[in-house]
């Protein structure tokens, strides 16, 4: 390769070098504009470069025969040569009215011309947003922010604009970071500007599943506006605060704030904020036992959101309405509500990062009601429109579905594919927990112990509380199952470090629960499960121990953790299996319940044919018997807590 390049004439090498900085090839017309050669000499030089095997004809221009060849030759260019070549290409692109602004920004930046790269980056970002290409918009905004010193209009407004794109791209952490930077640059900005930024920070913190930080930011916004008259902004931050408190399970303090948000929105004539307040008020009223009033509030919220065309409000109202219907066992209505909300959101050009809330809850209901093939198909469709990182988490949901269905071969294939994903502690931790739970239900305690230890090792030092405590709960169950066996029957193939590490599980679980359980109800629920398993290991558990676990899962469901962050709210494994398993510990007869309008023969067939745990939500008393269901399978028929715990309301701040 290098010998071929060294053997070229100077003019042929100039052609190769210019194509080298284009990354993906370039047209002959663009090459002619960038390389200062007469047309006849340019053609001869291009022919020599192609004859050498370094370049190949591609469409209406030239490209490298192998990407690695381009990378090696680019790396051998001197810094000054690279800047000159990028500058020539940028000038050629700038002379063309249809040039991609991102390519312009990129090449001006590499040419050492930040004064020209910055404006091009802003133009590229806004064009990408207009085309709903949100990840590309985030890339361009990041460059524009890096070059802010060369932008006359840079400042909090640009950062807020970039944060909005990052939120739509499904990157709430980056969005929150940009809002924090905007707040730092606010200086003596009016209170309304700072309050608006704090409300957005709360939203992005919620999307990142940091509820405590979300509520803290929103409370700061409310405090800034405390002495201001009623306005749309005040109503918005009050509605967000009510939502945050509801998500933390503090329904008592959420109610008056939600009522105040609705009242102030009405006084200010703020239709969108009125709908936002009603969405949260509906959930709170239903939680207080006023179910019909809650449903009515959510129906009005959806109508108001459709009137204003605010896609966030549309999705919030539809997802919350869907959630309440599911808690009442009205799954068919819930699916209709979700589909209507999805259709309206699509008509408003909603980004996938927002509509995924409804999509995931739809998949959750399909899975919970035994329509597994439809759930799997929906997840497959979502994979096609997701970023690479989001796709891996959707594959994890597919794995949990396969585990719940007892499809061991598909579970193995998905696990093998996920093992090749880029390193991500959150993904690996959840993967190991899922595989540990699969091994537990198969009775393979040695494999379950190994998955727990591998997952905990991956999560060490990452601070990922929910993934870690889920593994600790699974590990506590392994320890309890081992303790329940006669000494002669205990597995002899446990990992060498198992006994030593297992001794630390109770204290570690308590520490995580104490530190993060209040802000993350799912952490509290897994913590309760770990504590109950520890009690079982030592023979001190009773039905009350396990009822406390069910209560913790109910709170976790009401808090709305799941779909907004990419989790599948009613996955047949994870929390669903945890709750069904808990009802066996309580002593409740799980055959006393069945799905709304379920055909008993169908349910019996599903349970008898399954080779893994099957979790179905309960709705009402069973008017018959599950004939043909093996006794060993019956305890997997779900319980009331599943229907009331794991389908999440959207309820975004």
How would the global form be characterised?
A: globular
Proportion of residues in extended strands: under 5%
Report the average pLDDT across residues.
82
Determine the fraction of residues in helical runs and give it as a percent range: 55-70%
Main beta-sheet strand count, sense and barrel state: 3 strands, antiparallel
Strands side by side in the biggest sheet: 1-3-2
DSSP strand tally: 5
Structure class: mainly alpha
Summarize the structure.
With 653 residues, this protein is mainly α. The chain has helices at 2-6, 10-20, 28-34, 39-51, 67-75, 79-94, 101-110, 114-130, 134-146, 156-168, 172-184, 191-207, 211-224, 232-247, 251-268, 271-287, 291-308, 311-327, 331-347, 352-368, 372-383, 388-405, 408-419, 425-441, 445-459, 465-483, 498-502, 505-516, 521-537, 543-558, 575-586, 600-609, 631-634, 640-645, and strands at 26-27, 55-58, 61-64, 593-594, 620-621.
């Amino acid at each position: 390769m290098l010998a071929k390049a060294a053997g070229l004439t100077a003019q042929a090498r100039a052609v190769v070098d210019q194509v080298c900085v284009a990354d993906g090839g370039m047209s002959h017309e663009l090459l002619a504009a960038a390389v200062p050669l007469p047309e006849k000499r340019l053609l001869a030089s291009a022919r020599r470069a192609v004859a050498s095997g370094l370049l190949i004809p591609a469409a209406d221009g030239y490209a490298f025969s192998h990407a690695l060849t381009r990378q090696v030759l680019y790396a051998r260019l001197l810094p000054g040569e690279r800047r000159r070549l990028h500058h020539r290409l940028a000038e050629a692109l700038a002379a063309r009215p249809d040039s991609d602004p991102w390519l312009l920004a990129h090449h001006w930046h590499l040419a050492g011309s930040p004064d020209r790269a910055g404006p091009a980056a802003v133009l590229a970002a806004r064009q990408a947003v207009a085309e709903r290409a949100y990840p590309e918009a985030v890339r361009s905004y990041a460059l524009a922010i890096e070059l802010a010193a060369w932008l006359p209009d840079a400042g909090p407004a640009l950062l807020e604009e970039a944060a909005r794109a990052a939120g739509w791209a499904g990157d709430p952490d980056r969005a929150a970071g940009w809002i924090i930077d905007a707040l730092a640059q606010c200086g003596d900005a009016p209170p309304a500007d700072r309050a608006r930024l704090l409300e957005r920070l709360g939203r992005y913190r919620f999307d990142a599943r940091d509820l405590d930080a979300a509520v803290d930011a929103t409370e700061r916004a409310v405090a800034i506006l405390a002495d201001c008259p009623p306005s749309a902004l005040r109503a918005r931050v009050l509605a967000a605060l009510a939502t945050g408190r509801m998500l933390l399970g503090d329904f008592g303090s959420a109610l008056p704030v939600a009522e105040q948000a609705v009242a102030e929105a009405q006084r200010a004539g703020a239709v969108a904020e009125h709908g936002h307040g009603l969405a949260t008020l509906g959930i709170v009223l239903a939680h207080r036992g006023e179910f019909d009033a809650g449903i009515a509030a959510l129906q009005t919220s959806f109508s108001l959101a459709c009137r204003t065309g605010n896609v966030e409000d549309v999705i919030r109202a539809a997802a919350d309405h869907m959630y309440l219907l599911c808690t009442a066992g009205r799954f068919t209505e819930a699916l209709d509500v979700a589909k209507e909300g999805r259709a309206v959101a699509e008509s408003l050009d909603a980004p996938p990062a927002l509509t995924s809330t409804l999509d995931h809850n739809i998949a959750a209901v399909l899975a919970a009601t035994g329509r597994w093939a439809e759930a799997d198909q929906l997840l497959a469709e979502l994979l096609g429109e997701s970023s690479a990182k989001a796709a891996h988490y959707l594959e994890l949901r597919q794995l949990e579905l396969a585990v719940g269905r007892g499809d061991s071969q598909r579970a193995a294939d998905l696990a093998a594919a996920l093992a090749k994903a880029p390193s991500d502690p959150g993904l690996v931790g959840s993967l190991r927990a899922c595989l540990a739970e699969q091994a537990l239900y198969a009775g393979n305690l040695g494999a379950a112990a190994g998955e727990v230890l591998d997952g905990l090792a991956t999560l060490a030092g990452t601070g990922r509380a929910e993934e870690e405590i889920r593994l600790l709960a699974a590990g506590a169950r392994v320890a309890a199952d081992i303790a329940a066996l006669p000494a002669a029957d205990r597995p002899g193939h446990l990992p060498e470090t198992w006994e030593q590490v297992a001794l630390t599980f109770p204290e570690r679980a308590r520490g995580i629960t104490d530190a993060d359980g209040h802000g993350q109800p799912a952490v509290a629920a897994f913590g309760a499960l770990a504590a109950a398993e520890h009690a079982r290991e030592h023979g001190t558990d009773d039905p009350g121990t396990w009822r406390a676990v069910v209560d913790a899962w109910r709170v976790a469901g009401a808090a709305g953790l799941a779909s907004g962050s990419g989790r599948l709210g009613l996955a047949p494994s994870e929390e669903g299996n945890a709750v069904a398993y808990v009802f066996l510990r309580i002593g409740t007869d799980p055959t006393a319940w069945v799905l709304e309008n379920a055909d008993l023969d169908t349910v019996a067939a599903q349970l008898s044919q399954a080779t893994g745990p099957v979790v179905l939500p309960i709705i009402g008393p069973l008017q018959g018997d599950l004939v043909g269901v093996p006794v060993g399978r019956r305890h997997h028929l779900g319980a009331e807590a599943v229907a009331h715990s794991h389908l999440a309301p959207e309820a975004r701040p």
